[in-house]
Design a protein that fits this description.
It is a single chain. The protein has twelve helices and no strands. It is mostly helical. Helix 7 packs parallel to helix 10. The longest helix has 50 residues.
Amino acid sequence: MDRSSIGGIGIAVGALLVAVILDGSSPAALINVSAFVLVVGGTIGATMASYRMADFKNLKDVIRVAFRSGEEDVNALIRLLVGFSVSARRDGLLALDARVQEVTDPFLRSGLQAVVDGVDPEFVRLLMETELQSSEARHRRGASMLETAGGYAPTMGIIGTVMGLVHVLSNLTSASSLGPAIATAFIATFYGIFSANVVWLPLGGKLKVRSQEETLVRELMIEGVLSIQSGDNPRAMEEKLRAFLPPRAAGAGDAEGTADTKTAEAPAP
């Protein structure tokens, strides 16, 4: 699980509970099952109505991605691509055929397989960039669904509050019961605002960040695959790929990457 997503939501919930206790109230005062059902059900229903069913069915997977911890070791990826480059220069592209099947990433594997099969470089780039654009579009739809839910949730909360106030005023028997009843009615507004700003919108933002990170990694893969196909010098290729990384990340892998390249380029005894 992604620690920042879990930790961030946990801190927000914890801060809320502490604030309630410091004000002399009880967390139990925030529990209202009917308001919760209205806000959550209404938000999900309105979001469903805003998208195709095929897209909405992926909402569960989209949320799972936002909580998933899966940062790619980009330095390891660069070393893998450099290793392929060394093998291709030494033994030819066809020698990579057996190793390509060991690559776990389907995007990289399909690109390398196209190179091994002798596909034209321009078509390889077109193939990989088209798949990248398709992936980006799916990610945008996923983030958009969560942001749409974040827009509907406060409105559903207001609807719940209005319904509660209508019920309170239509059944008013004494002035002493008016205050607690109105406070209970406003719980729905609280649920809507809280869920939007602590759950839906932050998770939508997290998906955007994940999409940007994945796009950068896949652009690196494209350049690596094309460099292998064109027979670029492995050391020059490594420097080109490290240009995709921020300085700290690039520096972390420089020593190890250079050592691996020298070892790989060394002639067999």
